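Bug report

Summary: structure tokens for Actin-related protein 2/3 complex subunit differ between web form and batch submission.
Environment: batch mode, default settings.
Steps: 1) Submit the sequence below via batch. 2) Compare with the web form result.

Sequence submitted:
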Amino acid sequence: MTAVSVHKFAQCITSHAWSPDNSMIAVCPNTEEVHIYQSSEDKWEKIHVLQKHDQVVCGIDWSSKMNKIVTVSHDRNSYVWNQEGGEWVATLVILRLNRAALCVQWSPKENKFAVGSGAKTVCICYYEQENNWWVSKLIRKKHNSSVTSVAWHPNNILLATTSTDGKCRVFSTFIKGVDTRDSEAGSASDTKFGEQIIQLDLSYSWAFGVKWSPSGNTLAYVGHNSMIYFVDDVGPSPLAQSVAFRDLPLRDVFFVSEKMVIGVGFDCNPMVFAADESGLWSFIRFLGQKQTAPTSARAGSQISGAFGKLYGQSKYNNASDNGNDSHSSGRAHENCITCIVPLKKGRDSKVTHFSTSGLDGKVVIWDLGSQDIADYL
């Protein structure tokens, strides 16, 4: 499993998203703008600049069915962008927030999107046909701190969130007139909007990225204490596992399959986690490595390598050149990875490629065709 391509788009990237046909990419270069690039003969050409926000754009998602882009920013606003006549036209979404909007994601049916914020609030936004505008319903008084990540269950109703209060929570987002009570939604359609299904207290530190498995049977989220948590049978009697690793904390996760998860974060290199036949999860290796990092490295070398990754490219490169970082050779990213996005799917709808972006301003495309992980896909 190796990096297919590496592209430098900015000094720093807070988030990125792909167009439905993967021919264009939208990146947030840690400014109030969004830049859209199009691929042409192995080169990327900037074709649009989206300008509406007043402060840093920190979240973006591109719907695969409707070809709409949603953005959120520290200016407490959200915009839905529609392409009309070759130009992107923005529609303001009233979020009613008094703190920054931090993350956003379209629901699977793309009739709603969720926004996490620094106001301890989650906004569930949907389009109101009668008034021809986007409105939001708020899930309040559930979080004790900023909402750092949101993830939709495949049933389009349940929403998982993580927060800097260390908790992972699952809520119902059923909205009458928007959602339907059918067999696909199951018992989730019998819940009320904003009802908390479960609160997970596995982490004793900030919690960041959260994702559901393709079937929705497993939930994974990460803590700032270098741990990743897996929860099966989310409900009254969940089954939870905690996997600790010796490296720097993760920021985001992604399910490649029911038995395999990719985690990215401060270690600048994606990490592979997999479940065995009994359902026990464990760390497998870093991408591009056949084995985990050797345990014979000296503690001083590990600490200096970690500080290099935390404090910037120059120190990081020095640590690598001195051989202090045991798994740094061939690393595609040079700073913290903050975002991971699925890119391509095969005939059986399994993900074959994914992309990562980070504070080094790079977007890296990874290939999942490695034979030594084929059993987990």
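Above is the batch result. After comparison, the two runs are identical; trailing whitespace caused the diff. Residues 291-328 have pLDDT under 50 and may be disordered. The chain has two helices and 28 strands.
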